[in-house]
Amino acid sequence: MGPVWTLSIYFVVWWISLFAILPLGIRNHEETGVRLPQGADPGSPVNPNLKRKALTTTWVAAIITALIWIVVQFNLIPIPQLP
After folding, report:
1. pTM listed for this prediction
2. I need a labelling partner for 9 at 20 to 30 A (CA). Which of 19, 23, 32, 60 fits?
């Protein structure tokens, strides 16, 4: 399992993790009681915390990728060789 394979798996896992983590802790304007700016979507988040979620996504993806690497490296689940 080379570095290109590992990076590609990390990239895919990072995006899947991001979409799983994005909705966590989101509160919209109606839930918080904050006045909605004119022309804004009522379901838009008040404070999305994107930097924090990007950092959380990074370490979650790193852990998941490490687990995948361990499974593949030690043949815990055999993966068939493609021709």
Report:
1. 0.82
2. 23
